[in-house]
Amino acid sequence: MAKKNIESNKTFQVYGINNCSSILKNQKFIIKEIILSKGKQSYSKIIELKEYYDKIKYLNAKLFDEKFGILRTQGIIVNFTGKVLRDFQEFEFTKQNSCLLILDQIKDPQNAGQIIRTSECAGIDGIIFPKHDSFSISNTVLSVSQGAFVNMPLFQVININKTIRYLKENDFWIVGLENGLNSQLWNDINYLGKIAIIVGSEGSGIRKKVLENCDFTASIPMQGSINSLNVSAAVSAILFERLRQIQSFKDK
User: What percent of the chain has pLDDT over 90?
Assistant: First the structure.
């Protein structure tokens, strides 16, 4: 279903304590360089990581700010290489309560990064997005995720509809987040079991052919004068509703 992931030599850059700590604590990435601003609190976060001493480069605060001042770095930058994307063929279908998030035509890297962060916090099992007409893995996406990309499986596929059919063959129900006449309230849908949730872009929503492959559609009605949520906010609402249902079921 997914194009084979080929190890890339591309160097990524993340910044901020959460992002950098996640990278440095994980053994699957190759650390190329750690850039520190002298006198910043980030120093204490990595001083114990002796294996990285030869990767550290110190800059005085003025020079550091000149190079990275527009970023929220907290005084630390990490450049690394490694496999950020995973092969969808490796996904395990054995988990009883399993949830995948499918992003259809989400192009904004800020939204993509925030969705990755929210998804990791909500305990879902992976994010699927198409290779074409979509965001790509970039420094912005990774940094906005606040390190969540390290633990959140990211699957880039060629064809979303084929992937949906493959999920259905493996007993997944497909829920599209789309306001429509036949849509159910997002909190009336049962998210227990194997579920794939599809969200589309704020501008055009879920593509028609993708929507046709959904078993259910869910809507989040608005009370204010603005008629739509930011896509990352909508993702947060539906994923944490699923988490609430799972926790409620366990408590019974």
Answer: 60
Contacts of 71 (CB under 8 A, 6+ apart): 15, 143
**Rounded-to-integer distance, Cα 96 and Cα 249, Å:** 13
Separation of CA 8 from chain center: 19
**Residue 1 contacts by C-beta under 8 Å, 6 or more apart in sequence?**
88, 89, 157, 159, 162, 163, 166
Angle of helix 109-122 relative to helix 231-251, nearest 10 degrees? 10
> Alpha helix (H) ranges present in 105-230?
109-122, 139-144, 160-169, 208-212
Indicate whether 2 pLDDT > 60.
Answer: no
Helix, coil or strand: residue 125: coil
For residue 137, pLDDT over 50 is answered with: yes
Average pLDDT over residues 211-232: 78
Could you tell me the domains of the chain?
A: 12-81 (3.30.1330), 88-251 (3.40.1280.10)
- Helix H, strand E, coil C: the string for 160-190 is HHHHHHHHHHCCCEEEEECCCCCCEECCCCC
Q: Which of 79, 131, 80 is nearest to 107 (CA)?
A: 131
How many Cα atoms are found within 13 Å in the side-chain-facing hemisphere of 38? 7
Q: Where are the beta strands (DSSP E) in the chain?
A: 12-15, 30-37, 56-59, 76-81, 98-104, 126-130, 154-157, 173-177, 184-185, 194-200, 216-219
Tell whether pTM > 0.85. yes
